[in-house]
Amino acid sequence: MSITSRQLRGTGRDRSPAIALTVGDQPAATTLPLAIGFGLLRALAATAAGLILACGVGVLIWAVTPGSPDAGALVRGAIAAFGAANFLPPSIDGIRVTATPLLLSAVCFGAVASAGNLRFGRRAPLPGMPAQLLVAVLTGVAYGAFTSAAVAALAPPGAAAERVERPIAFGVVAAVAGLTLRGKEFPRAFRSWAPPWLRGGLRAGAAASALIAAGGAITLTAGLVRSFGTATDLASTAPGFGDGVGMLLLGLAYLPNALVAGIGYSSGVGFLVGGGSYSPLGSAGAELPGLPLLAAVPTNAGVSWLGLLSTLFPLAAGLLAGWLLTRTTRSMTGRLLGAAVAAVVVAAVCALLAGVAGGGIEGSSWARLTVPWWSGLLLGGVVGVLAAAVGGVGVLTGRVGAAGGSGSSAAASHLTEPIAVVADEPAGGGDAPAAEPAESVEPAESAESAERVDADEPAELAADIEPADVESAAAAERPEPAEFAEGAEGPGVPDDTVAGADAKDGGDPAVAEDGDAAGGGGRHRRGRRRNR
């Protein structure tokens, strides 16, 4: 046994050590079969967690609804909703609901991403990125297979579509995302080969996408606040308390879908609900379902000035992306490439959100509840153009940013200024030969000109002197300690030692002056010899 990295972990006031022991000098190794087995167990645990959550919601609705005839029916309906969160559209009385509840999907995505993280407690991580990627893919496939089998066995007959490829694809994407974002080897390998403009473009695209999503959330919130009275009236139409709770849970489950609709609205393209279309430039209304969440849909037929304000969020996202690129990339070419990468990221994220949030209720007048996918292309183009413009302006005005900003150029200009070095007087106080002309960074400059520069230098230039220069100058002008003064002997130092040291210097005062002109090193060396 040997003690590993977590050896001494203080607990309490006495800091008593908590010893963690492992077998051997290294943590236990993780083989590929063992990692695959762990991945399958985690996939099964993620499926079980989703089923337990869905069944808990069903039991809650049954408990608060006194008129519910059977708890089993509600539980089976909740399992069908779990299948809908994994892109298995449920069927209710022959009517298929193709709109995915994205809030439940986000919960399932997080569970699968945690399963694909491939951390096995105190064991060493699985070596090699290909092996880790293989285990993550197998974990996602297992999650999709377990989910499809559970929904087919526990949901009402015919309630879930038999589309096993959808939950498998969902599980693979979630597991690989968990490995990529929360792992260590993939980010380290990416940073090792990716150029700065690619890393900066991805970072700028992610920040711009987050700002656009925040704009969609603010737009949705403003719509709900404006129509709060209508939303409360729709909520009051529920027959009982249990029905009201069910309506509330339904609104929460589809809240991210409404957020995506807000993103489409702020892009200027708008969104579709049944036969109606809604955008800041004009809306064509249609009959809507009686859900409180849909009260945020605008009702004006003309141009909405409040809606036009929401289009400022994509513009701000483009400016933010350009500003981030100016801080990470120096050249014009790098910034243009980074702007293109940011545009691709924004377009891909927004188009993907529009695709997964779409759907509707087949066989009814609300078969379309969606955002046009090409709104993502429009948002990506806006972000790319503005980011490139900001980056180009930054290059033209010389605002380089973190890659090589004005601070480094100021330091470089300070280093090019001549620094005069003035020789000190001899310690003995006697007459000494005239000192050599003081040297500076620039050759062929006399001591008189250096003194004139020192005398005429403005006081405000003193702020440019580095602290290290001030300390060295102060050390050179500091008076010599008494024990190192000329003619004084250190404690317990024989006279012959001092004489020998003077003999080595040759007794020439010019030698002492040369040493003092070099920074006072000669006197200190003589003092050290005397101490010896």
Q: How are the SSEs placed, and which strands pair?
A:
Blueprint: E1 2-3, E2 21-22, H1 32-64, H2 71-85, E3 91-92, E4 95-96, H3 102-115, H4 129-154, H5 165-182, H6 185-193, H7 196-226, H8 228-235, H9 241-253, H10 255-266, E5 271-273, E6 276-279, E7 282-284, H11 305-310, H12 312-328, H13 332-357, E8 369-370, H14 374-396, H15 406-415, H16 447-456, H17 467-477, H18 495-505, H19 509-517, H20 521-531
Antiparallel strand pairs: 1-2, 3-4, 5-6, 5-8, 6-7
Pfam families: DUF6350
Biased composition (Basic residues): 522-532
Region (Disordered): 424-532
Task: Give a description of the structure.
Keywords: Membrane, Transmembrane, Transmembrane helix. It holds the Pfam family DUF6350. Residues 424-532 are annotated as: Disordered. By secondary structure, this protein is mainly alpha-helical. It has 4 domains: 1-28, no CATH class; 31-193, no CATH class; 196-404, no CATH class; 447-531, no CATH class. 59% of the residues lie in helices and 4% in strands. It has a 4-stranded antiparallel sheet with strand order 7-6-5-8. The protein has a two-stranded antiparallel ribbon with strand order 1-2. A hairpin with a 2-residue loop joins β5 and β6 (276-279). α4 (129-154) runs antiparallel to α5. The protein is flat. It starts with a strand and ends with a helix. Residues 1-24, 399-471 and 480-532 have low confidence and may be disordered.
